[in-house]
Each structure stands twice: as C-alpha cells, then as structure tokens.
Amino acid sequence: MSPRIAVIEHQASCPPALFGRWLVEAGCELEVVRPYLGEDLPTLTSYDGVLVLGGEMSAHDDATVPWLGPLKEQLHTVIAAGTPLLGICLGHQLLALAEGGEVAPCRLGQTVGIQHVGWASAAAEDLLTLECSGEERGIHWNCDVVVDVPEGTVVLARDARGNVQVARFGRRAWGIQAHPEADGEVVRRWA
User: Fold this and answer.
1) Of 67, 60, 1, 62, residue with least CA distance to 28
2) Largest Cα–Cα distance of the chain, in whole Å?
3) For the chain, first and last CA: distance in Å?
4) For the segment 76-104, what is each residue's pLDDT rounded down to a tens digit?
5) CB contact at 8 A, 187 and 181
6) Which of the listed residues 69, 75, 174, 180 has the most CB atoms within 10 Å of its CB?
7) Inter-CA distances, 106 with 39, 137, 143, 163, 175, Å
8) What is the pLDDT of residues 108-154, one digit of tens each?
C-alpha cells in the first residue's frame, strides 16, 4: 500500500508542484486539502506524512483565515505523534508557532530571489539534510520569518541575514523557509 500524504494547500497559486511530483514518483499517494475552497481539515495524524505549503497570508492571520488556528493545533499533535512532516515557507512558520516559537515580518523587508543555503554543522547529522552538498540555493519569496525558535528546535540553516532557513521542530518535523516545490511555472505566476 502506498504511503498517504496529506498536502495542505493554502491557495491555488501555491501548489505542491515539484514536491508533489517527487512524492508521487517515490510511490506516495497525495491527498491535497484545499481549505480555501471550504474543504475541512482531515485528522492529520491519520496520514503517513504531512506537507504544509506556503501562501500569501501571515501565520498570525487566524482571525481572517479560519483554518490557520485549527491547523496549528493539529501540527502540534502531528509533531508529538512523530508523523513525518514538512512545512514550506508559511508551513515552516506555522510549525514554529505551533510549538511556541515566534514569527514576525522580516526586519529588512520582503525576501525575493535565490538565496544560498547557509547550512549549520547540525545539518551534516540530520536525516533530511545529511546528503546536502553545501552548494544548495533556494527560492525565497516571503515577508515573514521565524525570529524565535521553540525550545528543542535544531536550526539546520540560516540565510546571510541570520534568519532561520531550515529547522527540525521535532523528531520527524522539518520546516524550510525557501520554496523547493516551486517550478518555473509557479514562479512565473508569482512574479
């Protein structure tokens, strides 16, 4: 039986794109959930893995984006259960908030473009990043960043400004500020 992966898509312009293709090629079955279209969040711990994508909203927009509060509660549960979890951009920020971290606007304004990934020494020993070469770059398109990581977080990379780029928030829960899912078509739509 194929591993079932819940994909939380916050808006149509931020699809799973490359990451979705990679997961399907690896034999996974994706169940894309679109709460912006009125779809209910499923019980995320019932899946073999969870992918939380990016979006234009802030991770603090619970009052105007009704699924964000319940999603953060579920992410905390998913992390505690040890279900494999990856948060991308907004997803990364939601993971940090779910565990008690802090997210705020970038001090120097929006980050857009390709940035070098500043791997920390801990990345060489992490399951997700141990194969990284040190030459990686990532597409960044964000206004907010994680400014305070929750207790127990392992920071795996920082950008040149010192912002958290990649972190492990639990035994099997990672967040990345960049957009490894964005292919050329997605970036063209954003631009």
Assistant:
1) 1
2) 47
3) 39
4) 999 999 999 999 999 999 999 999 999 88
5) no
6) 75
7) 31, 19, 6, 8, 17
8) 776 766 777 778 889 889 888 888 777 777 767 777 888 889 999 99
CA–CA separation, 58 vs 103, rounded Å?
A: 9
State the pTM of this model: 0.92
Helix 90-98 and helix 68-81, axial crossing angle in degrees, nearest 10: 70
Percent helix, strand, coil in the chain, to 5, is 25, 30, 45
What is the average pLDDT value for the chain, to the nearest integer? 89
